Amino acid sequence: MSPAAHRLVAVLLLLLLLATAYNVFNHFWLGRYQMYQQVQLELQDRLQRYERLLASQAAIEAHLLHIRTQQADQDYYLPHTTPTLAATALQQQISQLIQNHGGSLASSQILPASEHERLVRVAVRVQWVGSAETLQRTLYELESAEPLLFIDNLQIRSRTVRERVRGATRADQQVINVTQLIIQAEVSGYMQSV
Fold first, then answer.
1. Which CATH architecture has domain 83-192?
2. Prediction pTM value
3. To 10 degrees, the CA torsion angle through 94, 97, 102, 106?
4. pLDDT tens-digit series, residues 161-173
């Protein structure tokens, strides 16, 4: 090989070495630099979003307080979507309460729903028979229940019923007079109109 060819090969090898060094430098050093720049831009963007959220913290807390207050108010209303469903559930709730306290439900009637401002009044007229203790416990549970229930047009009548108390033998049986109360009332609750 001639000296000119050696020089040409040497120059080509030098150019190849410089190109390889540039690619290695570009890939490792400049690639990392660009990656760090990208990460820095993402972190700056995230920081700006957090600063905007922090700036709106008071508004968010006020909105959250409003939602919590509104949720607490929701507990006072009947949770059903239609007055018919609400009235049926109210009938079942009242019937269960009366039975739990030793009374017996004589009749139950769903009254027509009525709308007042943005609320729908759902009412049920019930009549039951029980003792004074049954009346007291049932009324207490109805008025302290959530959702809020209201008792209107309460009528109480008493009657004396003769009952036999069983003894060991037929001769030991006694007849006693027991006072029963006949209670009639309208129980109502409100649901928010949709």
1. 2-Layer Sandwich (3.30)
2. 0.57
3. 10
4. 887 777 656 666 7
